[in-house]
User: Fold this.
Amino acid sequence: MLQIKLFEAQHEEDLEEEVNDFLSRLHESKFIEIKYQVSMAIDEDTEDFESLYSFSAMVLYRV
Assistant:
């Protein structure tokens, strides 16, 4: 059976740590693929129009 695990973080280092932790507990033969995405938005409510980032990854694996 196939499953996915979703991860999201505001900093890429946090995402990297979460995904690596998950992968360290997943047997290599169960791993299939990782999809990675970065989204950005502008917070217009702040004085300097702060940029907000969302780093996400989806790991596809076999159970």
Remarks:
- The chain has a mean pLDDT of 96.
- The beta strands are 2-9, 31-43, 50-62.
- DSSP finds one helix and three strands in the chain.
